[in-house]
Amino acid sequence: MQTGIIGLSQTGKTSLFRILTRAHVETRAGQSETHVGIARVPDRRLIKLAEVFHPKKITYATIEYVDIGGLKQDRVKDSASLAPLREADALAHVVRLFDDPSIPHPNGSIDPLRDIESLDLDLILNDLDQLERRLERVEKDLKKKKDPQSEAEFALLQRCKAALDSEKPLREMEFKPEELKALSGFQFLTQRPMIYVLNIGDDEAAQMDGVIERHHLEKLREKPKTAIVPFCGKIEAELVDLSDAEAAELMSAYGLTESGRDRLIEATYALLGLISFLTSGEPEVRAWTIVRGSTAQKAAGAIHSDIERGFIKAEVVNWEDLLAAGGWALARERAKVRLEGKEYIVRDGDVILFRHSS
Ligand SMILES: Nc1nc2c(ncn2[C@@H]2O[C@H](COP(=O)(O)OP(=O)(O)OP(=O)(O)O)[C@@H](O)[C@H]2O)c(=O)[nH]1
Ligand SMILES: [Mg+2]
Known about the structure:
CATH topology of the largest domain: Rossmann fold
Oligomer: single chain
Distance between the termini: 28 Å
Mean pLDDT: 91
Number of helices: 15
Bound molecules: guanosine-5'-triphosphate, magnesium ion
């Protein structure tokens, strides 16, 4: 699962990328190469389970982030510069709310709603451009020969066009599963879930709750498939290289109770409709990413396709019950471990032991 980081130039995109992935990348003004990196999904359940199982290894779930470099106003309209985003499952738009006279703002002033609306519009126009080209081709085909599949595609694209024409991103539309399938090949950017990362100044960090009102961004709240995460890039950047204890101390000095990095990664995970199931034993305590609603057999495939294919049963226990029992044996004795079949819908925090033939 991949999230593309976008935003105007000098809004803190590469800084955010560095904070999320803990990668050491240089940030120079105007530098525009693409960075790709992996962020660990914070999960206190793994730490708790490790206290019981003393595993050799703890493995976290991960999300990939892509930083595509500064988007100048004109560059957003150029499809080629957006190409690295086409594969992304979600977009994170870094919006500048911090004021710093030493860092020029491409639009001349701090106005987050203006920046959000203008970049959103650029993405809409980009999708519209791509859609219209396809629409022309389908129309031409239909003139030659009427077939139901092209007719369905034509109607679907017309409906999308109407939405985009009225400046509505595709993520706000409802699609049937077969329509989603038909659209998947286009990789429309406005169809992706969106996270607005509000990069605030450190002077505002202690009043995280009122950020949306103070900057008049209430409009963003009701949007479907959209998350809003206030984030102080400057403080978070200072936290990256600190130990947990040092980080906690610095956060409390700024009046913060929770790491913005963790909040943002959690928001990404939730927005993508992802949950984690866990596996727990002596060699390894580990979180595995699946889409919410996945069956036990499908979940087995996250570990290995052989386990999915040879699936027999899943032994399932809630992580807290396993923790309270202090291990599998007592959890079984207490009848907390259920034997589930391949159609069982896995829940977030299930610890699973798969029985499979090889
Ligand atoms: N004051 C302040 N400065 C920041 C903050 N975040 C980033 N900066 C500074 O803003 C400048 C740009 O940061 P980058 O992370 O490189 O921004 P970017 O969006 O990747 O920039 P481009 O890739 O050039 O478009 C750097 O000098 C950062 O130190 C912040 O939260 N507060
Ligand atoms: Mg950058």
